[in-house]
Structures are given as C-alpha cells and as structure tokens.
Amino acid sequence: MRDNVNGGALTEVTFYILISLYQPRHGYSIMQYIEEKTQGRLALGAGTLYGALNALCEKGWISVYGQSDGRKKEFLITPLGKEIAQKELCRLKELTRFASEIIGGE
Known about the structure:
The protein has about 110 residues and is mostly helical. It has helices at about 10-20, 25-35, 45-60, 80-105, and strands spanning about 25, 60-65, 75. The chain has a single domain (about 10-105), classed as Arc Repressor Mutant, subunit A.
C-alpha cells in the first residue's frame, strides 16, 4: 500500500476502508459500504480489498473482530487506526480550506 503515514497522506481506498470499520464489517460489507458512500465511484475487487485488509492488519490499524468462522471474518478499526484516520481527516480539511481560498467555493 502506498500510504505515507509520516506525510499524513493516505490513499482514498485506505481512508474509506478505515472509516468503514468504525463498526465491525466483513469484506463484502466493506465493499458495499464504500460503493454506496461513493455512489459507485469506487468499487473494490475482492483481491484489492483483501490485500488492503491484510496490510492494514499488519500495520495494526485494523484487527480481526470477534470469533471468525473463516469465511465471514469481521474487521474493526484499532485505536491506532482511529488516530491515523483522524490525522487524514485533518489533512483533508486543511487541503480543502486552502484550495477554497485559492479557487473559491463554499
């Protein structure tokens, strides 16, 4: 994954996965959530999603939640993952504020 923790920039997919896991979800539910919230703009394939989930588990940003029966493993964001998501939200707000000053807008 190309996320730059030191610089604070996450990929859009990573950010959506993290915020989708503020409640426990299994893989298919994560895919549905992201597709719904982006109105179909982002549609993750299973390979992309499960690769990202494995990488996020390795980083300690998410973890397996509860008892998993193998096929429907649920994931949940960790305190570290919440910290990372909050930093990304602040970065995006700053970016939006700066761009609005230059471009105009709401």
